[in-house]
């Protein structure tokens, strides 16, 4: 073989070797990019899950606050109705007691004034 053929053979071997090295480098680069992309996707999924849980926790806290306020308002209204009913019952009882005390023992009487003295005739009826 002459030197020209040897040179051509050497060039072909070198270009083949460089091609293999470039392909290997591209393959490694692509694999590393794929690993980074997988990691990034998993991080995004974790962050999305954290945001979802935080939003759910905030929603739950707000809902509990609303429920507590509603319960307090319901309790306040029920207590107000109870106090109004109790006050009405006390008023009715006091009027009833006054009425019964006025009508239980009926006092009948008559009086006459004669000259200088008072004549008083009282009759107490208890029913």
Brief digest:
It comes from Acinonyx jubatus. The protein is an alpha+beta fold and 127 residues long.
Largest β sheet strand count, sense and barrel closure? 2 strands, antiparallel
Shape: rod-shaped
Order of helices and strands: HEE
- Rg is 53 Å
Structural class by helix and strand composition: alpha+beta
Low-confidence segments: none
Distance between the termini: 152 Å
Arithmetic mean of pLDDT: 86
Give the strand order, joined by hyphens, for the main sheet.
1-2
Helix content: over 70%
Description:
80% of the residues lie in helices and 16% in strands. With 127 residues, the protein is an alpha+beta fold. Strands 1-2 form a two-stranded antiparallel sheet. Strand 1 (105-114) and strand 2 (117-126) form a beta hairpin.
């Amino acid at each position: 073989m002459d030197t020209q053929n040897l040179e051509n053979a050497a060039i072909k071997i070198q270009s083949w070797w460089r091609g293999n090295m470039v392909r290997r480098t591209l393959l490694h680069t692509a694999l590393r990019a794929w690993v980074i992309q997988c990691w990034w996707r998993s991080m995004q999924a974790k962050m999305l899950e954290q945001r979802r849980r935080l939003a759910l926790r905030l929603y739950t806290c707000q809902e509990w606050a609303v429920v507590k306020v509603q319960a307090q308002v319901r309790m306040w209204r029920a207590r107000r109705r109870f106090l109004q009913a109790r006050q009405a019952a006390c008023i009715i009882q006091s009027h009833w007691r006054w009425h019964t005390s006025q009508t239980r023992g009926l006092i009948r009487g008559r009086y006459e004034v004669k000259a200088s003295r008072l004549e008083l005739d009282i009759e107490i009826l208890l029913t």
